[in-house]
What does this fold into?
Amino acid sequence: MARFGIEEEFVFLDDATLVPIGISDADRQALADRAMQGRVLAEYLTCQVECVTDPVETLAEAGAQVRHLRGLVGEHAADRGAVAAASGTAFATTGSLTVVSAPHYDDVAAHLAHITRGHEVNGLHVHVEIDDDEERVQALNRVRGWLPVLLALTGDSPFADGVDTRFASWRSVVMRRLPSSWSPPRFHDLEDYRSQVDRLIELHAIADAASLSWAARVSERFPTVEIRVFDAQLHPDDTLFAAALTRAIAVTGDLRASHARIDQLDASLWTAARHGMDARLVDPASAEVSDARTLARALIDAVRPALEAHNDLAFVEDRLARVSSEGTGADRQRAAFESDGVSGLRRLYRDGALSPHDEH
It folds into this structure.
């Protein structure tokens, strides 16, 4: 059974205005010290933290850690008159963000220049463990064709600057400004992967391989393929849904790698970011155009053996039905705001941070 790990980013928001607010290094360390499972780490901005699970084998294990870490972050925020939001973008901003003081982040901020001022985004990253170096590259090739479908299912950043962007994933649009983002190319093998990454470094587009912003990449720290296409997700079950699908794609060895052109995959990522489950996307198998709902069903059918082997199929089927009936995170955020404005959004964000004792 392939192990996987989850990295979730959260933004601390002022309780009244839902504008990002920073937390001190001491507060962040106090929060990290309380983690009994997984870790709480600094993120790029002082208004953010990242919660990282240990490597796990089952959704039950992942769910316990995700809920524990979310509960800690939610309680910490509430104690300080704030709310911790698992949303791809904050509802509003003052534009006065501060970058966490660390050598790596200092280098990133210097490289991105003015882009940093608008880079208030929160993502979900899923790592899938694959021992063989070459097989990780082939898993990356398999995943890349399904990135638009995964984004359509999980878009969760409809607001920015206090307005509805009319995008399901505004975070994806912000990420597009980075020098290596959205779909990676298709690689022949590990040597080809390294060669293309080295060329980006030679161009000074990125400082090192760890700075790649592709929506999927080979991890430099772990023996994993890392999928980064997802916005931060409102609820733990949304996160687990993304993780289950990601693992199933990565380990399905007979899943045909997509030969879709990179410009068509990027165009599909744009339409997924814009329209969510109403998007028209490139079918990874046929390279024909289809709709997101049909392709979501096709994805589950294609990776059904892996979902069954991991005992994830029933959960994934249930979550897909919920997306169909209740909408994506972006849909739910819009509904909450239309129903009760900022108060509705605040409740939605708080509901996503369960008590550390509510782990079921």
About this structure: The CA atoms of residues 245 and 316 lie 8 Å apart. The two ends are 22 Å apart (CA to CA). The first strand starts at residue 4 and ends at 14.
